[in-house]
Structure formats: structure tokens, C-alpha cells
Amino acid sequence: MSMRHFMPKIGELTLTSVDEFDFRLLIKALGKGEKGSRALTFAEASLLLEGFSKGKATRVQMASAMMLMRVRGETTEEVAGMVAGLRHTLDHDWRSLAVDIDWPVYAGKREQLPWLLLVAKLLASQGIRVMLHGDSLALPHRRHVESCLSAVNIACCTTPKSANAALQSDNIVYVRAGDLAPVLDECRQLHQELGLRSLIQTAVRCINPANAPISLRSYFHPGLDNLHQGICEVLFANGEYHDGSIAIFKGLQGETECNPRVSTTITVVNGQTDNIAVSSLSIPTLLEGFSGAKVGQAELSSEILALLWGEKQPFVSSELTALMSRTMIEQALSSITATLATVLLLVSRKSAMTEPNTTAIITAEQAVDLSLKCWENRFNTTDSPLKQWRSREFLCAV
């Protein structure tokens, strides 16, 4: 019998500072044969990412670790550790920003415009601070949020100072992942060279750079909902996340936007000091039996976002209907309604969690109804349904 069957696993390592640690030990733990290898612990994965960001772990070592974890299948602890490592590399000024909603947008969409931008813009117009962050180079064949920012006058900022100015003036900002943490650009280059998806693509969605009390997480592939839930629980348990509510759902083409053609199940992870509660809710199907609307959307100009935002009667707008079919408009508006309803549901539950006596919790049907009213009244900045809701302290957590 081969001696490899008796090869003992490498036990948990004694970790030192990034500057003193021998990162070959982590690669050896991951790659010591069929029986001798093991997954990294939360602390080890965090140290590996920090080491790579400081040039202490080499490109070869990081690429090897990414490959070994991908082949075996990354564990929740490994991905959560990478999230923690990424957060530790952030400039502390990012964490000082006053942000209500953390909105990662990394997937892009294959042919549709990012209708979610109009939801974020609506929330910002009502005084809710939104921070979008993404990486348009990770999947360059898709239509990313970043390419449409100028159409709806959302600033793309590169520093905490400029981001703070945008939040102060507009309540909304977009930041590239590489400007949040430069190591993310290096990680993207590695996984593109390898030609494999890496755990970094999951981890980056979870960094919540400004520690916003509400965060959205989307996924596409089956099983990633459970992974994201586990990541949240590990990060709360290790003190990396503090008080907050996180919504996890299957996004439209993977992006952080609801698909109105199907019902959307949302897993909500509420974390407080020494307490993690997980619940589930559902946004109903808004386009039952709907078909069509996909053909021709790849050619749509981002300027349509501005047209749709400014048009009170889109179905009879000659300018808009010359560019979009009725089914395209219907799908866009339904995506906006479903996505905004998701945010409203999350906010109401966050409010109820922090203020036990509030009557903030609403049903999914009420959230959809409120979402429709908010969109219809989006130009009313003094007496909109969302403003009325806030005035009754329903959004006290935000």
C-alpha cells in the first residue's frame, strides 16, 4: 500500500504577523496529497489574503492556493476568511463613511440594462445613502453598472474623500473594487490567467466597506445561497460584522436585482452582538406567464435609464416607445418594483429588530404596493410614500 495513505494531515498552524509568516506552510496544508491536505481555517485564509496584499505571499503562492481551493471546493471558513482579509486591507476612511445600504454589483447582465440603478437613485432621492461597488473588468463581456453611471448622474469615486462628498451631495456613490482594495485587481488578474472562477469573486461581494447596516447579496448558481448565509454567520461570529441585516437572493442574471418573472426567495441574516437570526421571505412573481422582451435589449443605450426615470407615462412616450417595446418597458418597471420591494422589506425588518415596539414590519404584498407608489411619486421629495414611511419612524434603523 502506498505510503501516501498514511500521510498525516498538517495540523492548525501557529500564525504570526504577516511580515514573519512563512506562506509556504499554507500551500503545503492545501496541497499535501490526497489524504494529507486540508482546508484553511478562517484565520489562515485571512492571513493569506493580507500577505498577498503586502507582497509577502507571492503571486505563485496565491495562484496555487486559489487553484487548490477551487479544485477541492472552497469551504465557508475559507471564503469568510478571505472576506476578513480583504476588509483588513481597506483604508480606514472607507469605514468612516455614513452609508445606509451596501449594494455590491459585480455580475453585470448579459443583455439588459441595470434597472437597479433607478432603484438606488430613487432611494437616494429620498435621503437614504447608497454605496454601490463593482468590478466591470471581471466579466468584460457583460453590461456592468459602471458603464451606465453617467446616464443617471451617479458619481464614480476613487477615494474616501471624494466618495464622502458624493454621499453628502447626492446620497449615492459608486466605487470600483480596485479602488477600495488594490489587491482585488491583482486577484482578478490571477483568476483570469488561470481561467477559473475563484473564491475572491464571492468574497468581494461581502466586504461591505462602509459597514452599512443593510447589505444586499446576489448569486446565480445553486448552492451559493447557503454559502453566502454561512459566510455571514462566520463573519458575525468572529466579530468582523457587527449589527446588520443582509439579504441574500438569486439575482437577475446573477446581478443584485430581482427577476420579476419568478418569485424571489430572500434569506435574511440579522446579526447583533451575540445573536444571529436567519429568516426567509419571498417577493411574488410580478410577470406571471410573461414572455418576450429579451430580443434587442443588448443594443439598448444606457440613456434609456434617464428616459425611463424622467418619463411619467412611459407606455405612451413616443421617445421611449421608439426605442423599447411595450414588453421591454413592462419588464424594466417590474424589475424596479421587485428590487425596491426587496429593499423595503429588508429595511422594515431591520427596523423592527432594533426597535421592538415599532410596527415597521410589512408583508411582501405591502412592500410591492409601496414600491409602486414610491416609483409613481419619485419626483415628490417632500411628501412621497417613502418619506411618509420614514416620518413614522419605520426606517428608524437607517
From TrEMBL:
<protein>
    <submittedName>
        <fullName>Glycosyl transferase</fullName>
    </submittedName>
</protein>
<dbReference type="InterPro" id="IPR035902">
    <property type="entry name" value="Nuc_phospho_transferase"/>
</dbReference>
<keyword id="KW-0808">Transferase</keyword>
<dbReference type="InterPro" id="IPR036320">
    <property type="entry name" value="Glycosyl_Trfase_fam3_N_dom_sf"/>
</dbReference>
<dbReference type="GO" id="GO:0000162">
    <property type="term" value="P:L-tryptophan biosynthetic process"/>
</dbReference>
<keyword id="KW-0328">Glycosyltransferase</keyword>
<dbReference type="GO" id="GO:0005829">
    <property type="term" value="C:cytosol"/>
</dbReference>
<dbReference type="GO" id="GO:0004048">
    <property type="term" value="F:anthranilate phosphoribosyltransferase activity"/>
</dbReference>
<dbReference type="InterPro" id="IPR017459">
    <property type="entry name" value="Glycosyl_Trfase_fam3_N_dom"/>
</dbReference>
<dbReference type="InterPro" id="IPR005940">
    <property type="entry name" value="Anthranilate_Pribosyl_Tfrase"/>
</dbReference>
<feature type="domain" description="Glycosyl transferase family 3 N-terminal">
    <location>
        <begin position="26"/>
        <end position="88"/>
    </location>
</feature>
<dbReference type="Pfam" id="PF02885">
    <property type="entry name" value="Glycos_trans_3N"/>
</dbReference>
